[in-house]
Amino acid sequence: MAPLMVWLDESLRLPDTFVPRKVDVIASQVDIAPTVLAMIGMGQHPSPFAGHDLSCLFVGDCLNDHTAYLTSVYDDLIGLATKEKIWLYSFRKAQLYWTDLGARSRVVLSEDDKDKHWEYRRMLESYVASNILLEQNRIWSGRELGACCR
Question: Across the beta sheet with 77-81, what order do the strands follow?
């Protein structure tokens, strides 16, 4: 829910690659590196990053259904932020619930209901994929930053 301002040097501001505007799309910190690299012409396909290139947002509307994967190592909690809701699953409590973007209300779903939601399946897919990438040392984690940065 934190805003991000992106400033481009004038030498990179081309009419077909940059239009100053406010964008209200859900994104994650893992989307920053592939987006910045694409904006300066160094993006790779396929990308080695866990995030997505969102540079198309600087030209016009795109990726309106983009989601961000959330994880907490302290609470065994995973989540998915969409443009309408934040979905969370607690492994410790074996509980799926969602909240509005302001986190003002919470709706707990029954065990039978969780398999009916694509958000639940997407969270589990992202959980498995991110853990495999961490085990293969393909993305960084807080463990590697040491005591200075926790």
Answer: 68-72, 77-81, 85-90, 95-100, 106-109
Residues in the chain: 150
Given a cut of 70, is residue 113 above it in pLDDT?
yes
110 secondary structure, DSSP code? P
- Rounded Cα distance, 102 and 12, in Å: 36
Give the Cα separation of 24 and 62 in Å (integer).
11
Give the global pTM.
Answer: 0.63
Locus of tokens 């866990």: 50
Structure tokens at 68: 């961000």
Residue 88 CB burial class (10 angstroms; 0-12, 13-18, ≥19): buried
